[in-house]
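Folds abound. Consider this:
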Amino acid sequence: MAHTAAKPARRADARHNAEKIVQAAVACLGRNAEASMNDIAREAGVGRMTLYGHFPSREALVEAALIRLLAQGDEVLEAVDLSGDPRDVLRALMESGWLLIAQAASVLQAAQAALPPNRVQELHAKPEQRVHDLIRRGQVDGVFRADIPADLMASVLHHILHGVAGDVATGRLDPTDAPRFVAQMALAVCAIPPTHAGLPAAQ
């Protein structure tokens, strides 16, 4: 009985350690995109053997940290009501998305340096799909331009968010202005040019 009871206890300890390590990775990488495995182990209060037992490489741990932040961000974006006027929804998504990008900027920088570009893109697929679907609905409703494919516009908005985050990080832009700017730029990208009104949607 004692041996049987010890196994769930060890599994619980392992889960607890893994959770501490991921939280520590988010914190360390959030302060410094080049944080080392030793930095993260110290932050988590675990030894190197425990750290590497859960995450065999820095790349694996960086990916776990990014996945954690994206999951937390997705919870925030899920709360945005997508049923209203697409222009109002886009503004809300961009403003919320900006806050999430700002919080995750350093971790994303670490991920871009450590992971293959296609993997980072894969991890962003869900939030980008949400924006794509909204843009497509706006095109069908006749409130967004239809001469440019929705996936291309969604990609442009993604780059706007990250570009603004970079400008804030380097001090070129006041962070209090960022939410307004990203929303205005997103709406400008999707707005129907006067000369394009009535054109068929791009496929």
Observations:
- The chain has a mean pLDDT of 86.
